Amino acid sequence: MKRTQISKYITRFAACALLSVTAGCTNLDEVLYDRITSGNFLQTRDDVTRDFLRAFEHSYWSIQGGSTFMLQENSSDEMMTVNRQGDWFDGGQYQRVHYHTWTPQDSYTSDAWNALYGGVTLATNSLEDLQGITDPSKFEMSREELDGMIAELKVLRAWLNLRLLDFYRNIVIVTKVKGQTEGGAQATPQEAFSFIEQELKEALPKLSTNTTLGDNAVGRWTQGGAAALLVRLYLNAKVYTGTDRFADCATLAQEIIDGKYGAYALESRWDAPFDYTNPTSKETMFGFPGSFAQTHWQYDGGMYFWMLPNMAPSYFGFTDFGNANPKYAMQPGRDVDSVEYNFALGKPFIKFQKYKDDVRLKKYKNLGGSKREGMFLYGYLPYINPAGKVDSVRGFKGPYALFLRDQVGRFLDAKPGTKIADKVSTMNNADNNSGLYPVKYPYYPSDDPNKISSAYAEVRFAEIFYALAECRYRAGNKAAAATLLNAVRKRNYPAGSASLYKADGSQLTDQEMLDEWMREFLAEGRRRTDLIRWGVFNSGTWWDKKPDADNHTEIFPIGQNVLNASPQLKQNPGY
């Protein structure tokens, strides 16, 4: 098996891992062995491949597992989990995320730590196994192939560590797990930053490029993917260490665009980076492969499937997963009387409406033949019910048809445009009409062969353009920033649209840059990080959210459950 065939194993392995979680084990006969080490555990090339892949499946799960997605989105001005007539109150935990009043006793502060360190531990264990191989030819592989696997695991671990640094700042650097009985001491943010940077730089030349791997690149960390992680690291360096690295970020981003680390290209359609063809897309710099029959974590309840109103699957014609549960929706741009709020942050749908010819503004609709249009669910959602009659999507708190609004309140069966007496619009006063829903990854009908077949695009080439644009903007070159942003934005508007930025970049401001990050990367699990980098996460005002008393909530507390198990750890400041 060649290195380019490993991606075929990634999908197969993901299916087996998912099956082991859902189906369990039926043979419980106990078999005892004296000791298993890398010396006798790895017998064949396939053993090495399986060992290599184990951390990837857990890491795919971690994009939403352990509340990681929820913490990134619900703490920001983008998404919300409101109390829908008693649904999703859950002891007020999501309200504490929205208001930045979380405590170490909230389970999600431990869950995210454990989820990410679970990946770090698995990656490190496999690294120790592979680094212990002294004769690769025993496994029918070359030293170059083995070094490539080791490099990919280091990049995977760096990706997990980067997210830990972003969440908690004062983290533990794990480089050995075999034979360890207790955790290590915390590193400073600068030490963690330097470790991640060093691992990525050392791994990069040993990785393949997407050009070499071709259509087998999905699920593989390539030179381009590793370089993109360095771009993320440098873009946020001032937040993490107090020293900005925007110049380094710009240099590396330009090298990626120029093709130094592989051949990448932007898609011409806005939806193509999220469609079933994205495993072979030149815009996908790193993606976790998914399919209906195997693993598809982005369609899990922790992420996009619960970013839908209750009966939305009937509207899609996709009924394999049953009904949805509206955990996430976009925060509103208007009050209950449909008056736009006057704060600058948040209001995601209104930020899209600023450019009225944006093709993404169309209501999501499946067109047949594995095609769709539009990115949002709003208004009434019609479908054909089991009786063969035209019906409309309803909620589970009343028999009336839902009319989805860019508002939050108790609208119940009120018709569009009707004034309601209850003027309260808060996290604790919503119904199933409240909020609009983005649909980035398609839900094709149940009889469509490409339903739920998209990879999760963790790193997109568009991100490199936006990162470089931000660096140019911060350096005072608005014209260059506008050119870079328009290179991506032009696919969102008709040819010749006046919605593209003027060539001199005169329309760009700090707020517009932050708004444009929201428009392009809506609900992709990065909004909190962007708000912090622009200095408004703690000081900003958005829907039902006042500024924090101070900035200690830029990082999360280390959960009390983690501290109880690891007494050597020190709690983050302010908690």
Give a verbal description of the structure.
By secondary structure, this protein is mainly alpha-helical. The longest helix has 26 residues, at 143-168. The protein is built from 19 helices and ten strands. The model is unreliable at 1-5 and 7-30 (pLDDT under 50).
Attribute tags:
575 residues; mainly alpha; two-stranded antiparallel ribbon; two-stranded antiparallel sheet; 19 helices; 10 strands; 37% helix; 5% strand; disordered N terminus
Strand content is under 5%
Oligomeric state of the chains present here: single chain
Going across the biggest sheet, name each strand in turn. Answer: 1-3
- Calculate Rg over CA atoms: 24 Å
According to DSSP, the number of beta strands is: 10
Shape summary: globular
Query: Structural class per helix/strand content?
Result: mainly alpha
Q: What is the straight-line distance between the termini?
A: 51 Å
Q: Kindly state the percentage of residues in helix.
A: 25-40%
Number of helices: 19
* Mean pLDDT across residues: 93
